[in-house]
Target: Phosphoenolpyruvate-protein phosphotransferase
Amino acid sequence: MTKTLKGIAASDGIAVAPAYLLVEPDLSFTKATVSDVDSELARYKEAISVSTAEVEKIRDSAKKSLGEDEAQVFEAHLMILNDPEFTGAIENEIKEQKVNSEAALDETAQKFITIFEGMTDNEYMQQRAADVRDVSKRIMAHLLGKELPNPASIDHEVVVVAHDLTPSDTAQLNKKYVKGFVTDIGGRTAHSAIMARSLELPAVVGTDSITKDVQNGETVAVNGLNGDVIVDPTDSQIADYKQKSADFLKQKAEWEKLKNEPSVTADGKKFTIAANIGTPNDMQGVNDNGAEAVGLYRTEFLYMDSKDFPTEDEQFEAYKEVIEGMHGKQVIIRTMDIGGDKHLDYWDLPDEMNPFLGVRAIRLSLQNEEIFRTQLRALLRASAYGKLGIMFPMIGTLGELRKAKAILAEEQEKLAAKGVKMSSDLEVGMMIEVPAAAVLADQLAKEVDFFSIGTNDLIQYTMAADRGNDNVSYLYQPANPSVLRLIKHTIDAAHENGIWCGMCGEAAGDSTMFPILLSMGLDEYSMSATSILRIRSLMKKLNTNDIKELANKACYVSETAEENEQLVSDLMKKVDR
Ligand SMILES: C=C(OP(=O)(O)O)C(=O)O
Ligand SMILES: [Mg+2]
Model:
């Protein structure tokens, strides 16, 4: 039956396709004794053999659609399925304890997982615990007659439906077949949403109930522009979505004409519109959309997509590829921002009550200096290949900034002593995403070459509203005067101290925020590549003389975010007339 859901528009575009539910089935079972051991063993062996065939199929399609590296994990799964130590132990359990296969599997898998996880001095073996968990899940699903989702083996057009998508789930999606996605939870700045924008996939997040409202294979229509999702749409609704999609593509074609144009206002003032990227693979989108710089390279994805810490050389190659790909235009690379909602399977960090207020980003780097130093060396070596800016995330105090800079200077000296080639005009900057840093921006500005405002976090910390929690999304207000005052103070402090100020949070590419930021004199706007041409077109329409008063009004006269949204909407009516 047709049903419309309202979510958060997370990535532009329209898609209509059958749903692919990326939802894990309930794998609970009841332990039982068996009288006919032989037929139980036969049932168990059948589950192993269908699981093996399935993993081989997934591996082959992952190799084709995603590449050798992404397919590696399935080789590890096959090794476990073929390992007599593992499969034999389950058989013995069935024979000796006369228990059903489910119980024998669960018991044995737990034993292996405990052993592997206990090998704290051998990270490689520790990671095998995750593989055993995955493989056991698959065998269990077959024993219980349930189906596990396999995103890497999708081979027809679908809209992926999930409770939430982790960055690694998102990385497994093949753009050729995945036409969009819809989730129960998450906000516009959740990492799954950010990935969707870099993949240029229409996405709606935070619908609350999509996984319950749609069946596998049922048609879903996704409007990533306004957050609407229709389950089982009528023919006329499908026609309407197709029309909307055509209109969107037409608008995109108009914007595309600006690809090689500079970013200038109606009165000829020049600013920089840059792109945010997560991996070197995003460079295609950066160049296709005419970015004038890379304003944020989130290096944590390099760590998240690896099975172990990326080596200095692996990092160097990735950074160099991006720097060279920009042909002399600036690239700002941010040191890793692990922690918060970003985890590494191979780095067992203590659980925290409040991960977003815990050991995250620069805090983690400063507590694990060797890992930090490796990254800095890779960055310094890559700096020789173009125009690099190194940026520290989550700086909250002058002390943290000074410590990070001192470590960087030490590595720079050591490399110089070895005669390693490095850039002579490297810039060192920091993100302003902790309210304390925004308040002290006048002091911090004296010690860096640039600021980049991270509104995704600055808003969540200022408003005390989790950026991914739908229940407090009403408080997540980019245009709230409190947030705007912090932004304005930061920009003014930067300019008073002769440094430039950019923004790499999602607000930089938000059409409502943009006129206010332009009025504040923000120098650089870094956003998902797919937003660049829309913002360039908007910039072209605005005259800085006409919006001189907007910043002050938005910060000091308005009392609410809604008033500011109205101010911009009134302004745009005049501009578009
Ligand atoms: C750009 C930002 O960083 P991230 O989204 O990676 O936390 C931000 O906080 O605005
Ligand atoms: Mg941040």
Summary: The mean pLDDT is 93.
